[in-house]
Write a structure and sequence with these properties.
Number of helices: 4
Shape: globular
Distance between the termini: 28 Å
Number of domains: 1
Oligomer: single chain
Low-confidence stretches: none
Number of strands: 0
Order of helices and strands: HHHH
Mean pLDDT: 87
Structural class: mainly alpha
Helix content: 40-55%
Largest sheet: none
């Protein structure tokens, strides 16, 4: 079966990841991170915004249902 990117993946293609990573490094945003990197947190919050999630539980549930595909959008399950 052919692979098709999701609309969410297409939206994330427009994020300037080089600039994002430079800002994370500049501000040491990942310095004391234990599990959820800044990039993964950004992806989760963007998913929540675009999916219309009303709570953190909805975001977690939605991302868990797509856990196998998170790698393709540059995130990892927490």
């Amino acid at each position: 079966m052919r692979h098709h990117n999701s609309v969410f993946h297409d939206v994330l293609k427009h994020v300037p990841w080089g600039v994002f990573e430079r800002l994370v490094d500049k501000h040491h945003a990942d310095k004391h991170v234990r599990r959820l990197s800044t990039k993964s947190q950004f992806v989760a919050l963007l998913y929540g915004q675009l999916s219309g999630a009303q709570s953190l539980r909805e975001i977690v549930g939605g991302l868990e249902s797509h856990a196998a595909r998170l790698y393709h959008v540059g995130a990892s399950p927490a």
